Amino acid sequence: MTLFKGMGWLVAVVAAIGVALWSRTIGEQYRNPAASLAFGLPAYSAAGATLAYSTFAQRLQKDPRAQLSRQELLLAEDAYRNDPLSVTAVGLLALGRHSKDLSEQEAIFEQAGLLSRRSNLVSQYLIKAAAKRQDDAKFFRWLTRAAVTDTRARAVYIGAMVDATSRDDAVRTLIPVLGPDPDWAPYYWRTILDKPASIANAGRIRMAIMGAPWKQFRIKQTDSKLVRRLVENEEFNLARELAVRLGQPGLTREVGRLPLVNANFARQPLLPPFDWQLAASGNLGSSIDTANRTLTISALGGANGVAARQLVRLSPGKYVARWAMSANTEAAASPLTIDINCAERADLGPKPSPSEMKSGRQIAEMVIGQSSCRWYWFSLLIAVPDDVGGIDYTLHNLVLERVP
Question: What residue ranges are annotated as transmembrane (predicted)?
Fold first, then answer.
C-alpha cells in the first residue's frame, strides 16, 4: 500500500468526518424515537436502535473512546429481535458484542453494508477501519459510496476531503482518486473553490489528472474559477501553468515579447485573467465582437473603474502600447487610460505612469522600473464625469510590446 505512506492526510479526513457525522447523527435521527418506544408505535424496533445510536453518538462527541452502555446494547438487541434486518441494530451489536474481535467486527459491518447503502454508522466505521489498515482501495470505495448514496452527508465527506487537500501529502494521495472522475468529483471541485488553504494543491491535482491515464483535458465549468482563485491567492505561476495546460490560446510556457493575449479581439475570453476580464455593471460594460474583432466599452456619466484587464508577467524595461480606437464623442481629455499596476501585494516597487488613450491610431511609451514585482495588471481604466452623457469606445486592436 503506497498511497498512504504519509498518514497525516488520512487521519485528518477521518477525524473531520467523525466529528461532523456524529453531530449530524444527533440532529437528524427519527423525529422522536423515545416517544415511539413509550407508546409502542409501529416504528418501535427501528426506534430502539435509533435511540441507542443517538445517545451513543452524543457521548462519542465528548469522548471518542466511549463505549456502548448496557442500556444502549439492550435496546439494540431488542431492536434486532424485532427486525433482524435493522442495519443500525446490527452495527451497534457488532460494536458491543464484538468490540475485542476487530476482524469479526469489521466482517459484520461489511455484511451490514449489504443491507443498506445509506447507513452513516456503517459507512463511518468501514471508512475508519480501512484507514487504520492503510487500505486505500476500500477507504475510497466506501467514501465514494457514502458520498454518492447520501446526498445530505455528502457535504461532510467531501468537505473533510477538501479541508485535508491543503496537507503536503494530499496531492499524491488524491491524484489516483480524482483521476477516474468519480460521480462526486464535481461537488469536490465546486467546494474547494471556497477553501483558500487548499486551492494551490487543487491546482496541482487538476494539472496532474490531465495526464495519462486519465487525460481530463476538457475544460470543466469550475476550471475558470479555479484559475481565478489561484490568482487571488497570488499563486501566479501555478495559475498560469494551469491555464497553459488547459489550452488557453495565445498563452505559452515562455513569456514572449508580446505579453497580451487575444490582443486582436478575435474570440471571446476563455480563461480570465490570462485573457480579457470584462466589466459588467450598471453604468460600465465591455464586450468583444468577434465578427468585427473589436472591444467595445460603454460607460455612462459617473462611471469609474476597470473596463477590461488582463494579468501579464513583465520584466523591468521599456514597453510601448499601440492601439486603434474610435469613439462616439470627443473630449478634451480622454476618460480612458492604460494602467499597469503590480498584482503582488507585497511589492513596493515604482508604479508606471498611466497613459491616456485617445481616438485614432496611437502609441504610448511606458517603463517598468526595477523591482521584485513580476506580475502586473494591464488595465483599461475609465473615469467619466457625472455631467457627461454615455460614451462608447471601440478598440480595433491593442498591443503591448517590449522594446530594446
Answer: 37-56
**Residues 72-106 pLDDT 10s:** 999 999 999 888 888 999 999 988 876 667 888 88
pTM for this entry: 0.80
Which grid coordinates are listed for 248? 488557453
Q: Is 39 exposed, middle or buried (0-12, 13-18, 19+ CB in 10 A)?
A: exposed
Q: 265-302, pLDDT tens digit by residue?
A: 999 999 999 999 999 988 999 999 999 999 999 999 99
Distance CA 30, CA 174 (A): 35
Sign of the C-alpha dihedral, residues 42, 48, 53, 54? positive
Q: List domains and CATH numbers for the chain.
A: 8-232 (no CATH), 277-403 (2.60.120.260)
Residue 1 CB neighbour total at 10 angstroms: 10
